[in-house]
Model the fold of this input.
Amino acid sequence: MLKVDQIDVYYGNIQALKGVSLEVHEGEIVTLIGANGAGKSTLLKTLSGLLKPKKGTIQYLENSIAGKPAQSIVKAGISHVPEGRRVFANMTVEENLQLGAYLRKDSQGVKQDFERVYELFPRLLERKKQLSGTLSGGEQQMLAMGRAIMAKPKLLLLDEPSMGLAPLMVKTIFSIIEEINRAGTTILLVEQNAHMALSVANRAYVIETGSVVASGPAAELQASEQIKEAYLGGL
Amino acid sequence: MEWIQQLINGISLGSIYALIALGYTMVYGIIKLINFAHGDVFMIGAFVGFYAIAGWGLGFFPALLLAMAVCAVFGVLIERIAYKRLRNATRIAALITAIGVSLLIEYGFIYVRGAQAAAYPDVLANKNYDLFGIQVSSQSLLILVVSIVLMIILHFVVHRTKIGKAMRAVSHDMEAAQLMGINVNTTISATFAIGSALAGAAGVFFGVYYTKIEPLMGVIPGVKAFVAAVLGGIGIIPGAMVGGLVLGVVETIVSALGFSQWRDAAAFIILILILLFRPSGIFGKNAREKV
Done:
């Protein structure tokens, strides 16, 4: 479904990704783990069109999307839930969800997806008319995910959904991620919480200072001594 | 009774300031730029109205609509030509460019047309109405009503329409807005178009109300509208409306008290006071840097 081949991405003169390659197949949950500053968010931003790769190709459903503007990538079916949620704090929960469906013309389908999002996240229904800036961190994460689902993505990019959340909320969020995946959306998940990420993913990539250093089935990586040492706190 | 009359005059003047201030605040809200050329868009609006009425014999409302349309296009062109390429530049570079654009419009216009003033045609028969002993001129009443209608339309556009929601989203978080599929360039253009159209309307009102227009007429009302926007809280739409009205009323009161020489100074005293004591404005929250 998605095939990233040898991409280089720069912030000004600083190279953030060096020859990164990665593949996501339809129906999978693929996770990308690595330390702070390894380039995980940079990769997602490049996929969603916020950054342009200097080199390399990105194939999505037979089309090249490298360097395409963000709106055409959303239209093609890739939604990105950014790190730190980035909900529109000055707007209500409902308005945030409407913005998620910004490019859609099928009002009937949008209506159905509103129901679907409220079903996945009943909390959001309760807080529909509330300004999203007044929500708790976990609720904002739900809103950011709901907002992305409103675009009806085929591929969902999630950047650090567990960041700053209480352990119980992390569990809830991850079980919803699995639910979204079971309903047919492919997921690329970036996480620092490698333990949680590996437990839900089919496959995983480990990224270190801008390069992929390991990859394979999630269960295999979870068992590897080296990964345990570096990312799972030696557990 | 005389006070109420003055108050109504003040509100009419204030609604002109408010219309200009809206453009300042909307543009600031979305690209964090004080568009100093905005006062000159107001001037262009006044002249388009002038030529439409005096030259083509249009009535008040067609002239108003024409001035708004021309200013909308003009505002979009300014953004596309001058500001767009500076979107990732330092803010001071954009600010200096805005001042340059302002001077270019003023003196370019003088070069083409000449600097002499023009007398606005008497397009609205001015009658004085007696409302419970208060003398109200039909002109100030009309200006007030049309301004309020424009502000209600603006409120509707910003809160209920898709482009309005896009504008609020871009102004809150440009990157996140892009992730929704919002076209940032289109949204910024729409903001300039709406803000400039309102300034164009204000230009026509100004011409009708004060009857004299000239190519540098945008400078002082432009700066005062900027004060009004800061007073209300820059970037906040209701703030610009209230700031404009407050400023208009204060100026009229200062004149009515016999200090008409000090009228312009009043606006700047307000600016200094607001910057000293409440820099975020009436409606602004104190911006704390997030860590």
Residues 2-31 of chain B form the longest helix (30 residues). The two ends of chain B are 54 Å apart (CA to CA). Residues 16-218 of chain B form one domain. Chain B touches chain A through 16 residues (CB under 8 Å).
